[in-house]
Amino acid sequence: MKKLFLFAFAFAASFSAAAQSIYYQDKNNKDMMRHTMRNDVLRNEFILPNVNKYVVLKSDLHIHTIYSDGSVTPEYRVQEAWTDGLDVIAITDHVEYRKWEGQMISFLKGYVPEGTKAVNAGITGKAADERGILADLNLPVREAQRVADQSGLLLIPGVEITRDPLKVGHYNALFVKDANTVYDADPIVSIKNAREQGAIIMQNHPGWRRKDLEIIDFEKQVYEQNLIDGVEIMNGGEFYPTVVNRASEKKLFMAANTDIHSTTSKDYVAVGHQRNMTLILAKEKSLDAVKEALHARRTLAYSFGTIAGEEQLVRDFFQACIKYETLLEKDKKQRRVRMTNPTSMHFVLNFGGNPVQLRPFTSCDFNVNRDKEVVFTVENLWIPGEKKHPEFRLGYHLF
Fold it and tell me: N or C: less crowded end of the chain, CB within 10 Å?
């Protein structure tokens, strides 16, 4: 009885303290209370294992801000990414296209040079104004860096080279040193300008506005000159399965990015999805390690529950995510095995036509016979080749 009383007292005391913390007295108005506003924002963790001793960094390598055609500030992009559970982001505002520039200059009349206007108000209208680039293209990264340093988020400086999607396409230059020196009227020269700074070049949304994914003449040129390092096989809600094969054949890293212009809370969280991520298998959490991993093509693309990449990386990733446990052995002829998924990934397994939804932090049980392997595919894992989905075989001797 005494223990029960003490428990009740402690519970009441804690409830009372919690209740008291909801409001506080305004110091200037005796008749006004204030609601306690919590300032600590919680980070939504997306739990993934290390793979082959590499740490899996969750990244978004294609992000826009108000300095091109995005709707939020660079500082917000960092805070948003931290809340979404990311480790790495790249700010990649357009070099040639800055949608809001004209409106912002009009608003700031009297604070900017007379006659200054947007360099390009149409995304494919012209390459650039004859006066050249009139803005400091390094500014969005500088503004984002202050917040990134406080949050522990890695920030990659980048720009998007934006040309006619039907004739040229769009390309992100990552790890640029000076975004102001990237532009040239010739898009190939722009890409080379970025590479001379040590930048990594990623082809963006290769199927955007196109009727098919046939390789166009410009792509042939940049592929043949080895100017491209990676390609988006997923962009927002777009998925290009045939580009999985192209990336493998041309030895490009595979990426999945949001290309976010709005907010991820609107485009992803509000509809119940984790944002797109390029999963980077790095030696450590540092910009040098990220750059090394991209050059080595140790990436996986994640979008709306689908993972795609080189077959061995995909296999290693799945095996790192899954744990097995023997529950029961029957006459040394059959074992009852439990497969557990202790990660935030959702896997769709197919056991010979019998689908199993192995959701995050769940498990499933199955039998393994001594004389017959258990064979299953993982339907939301994509690999190069004709099979598309990797097949796994589990024998009695493995448990």
Answer: N
Gap between the Cα atoms of 139 and 151, Å rounded: 19
| pTM given for the model | 0.87
Spatial contact of 295 and 303, defined as CB atoms under 8 Å apart:
no
> How far, in Å, CA of 87 to CA of 308, rounded?
20
Location of structure tokens 């532009």:
183
CB atoms within 10 A of CB 379: 15
160 three-state secondary structure = strand
- CA 53 to chain CA centroid, nearest Å: 21
For the chain, the residue count is 399
Q: Which two tokens stand for residue 305?
A: 């529950």
DSSP state of 338: E
At a CB cut-off of 8 Å and minimum separation 6, what does 303 contact?
Answer: 234, 237, 239, 256, 276, 277
From the list 153, 137, 145, 142, the residue with the least C-alpha distance to 67 is 137
For 147-165, the pLDDT digits (tens) are 999 999 999 999 999 999 9
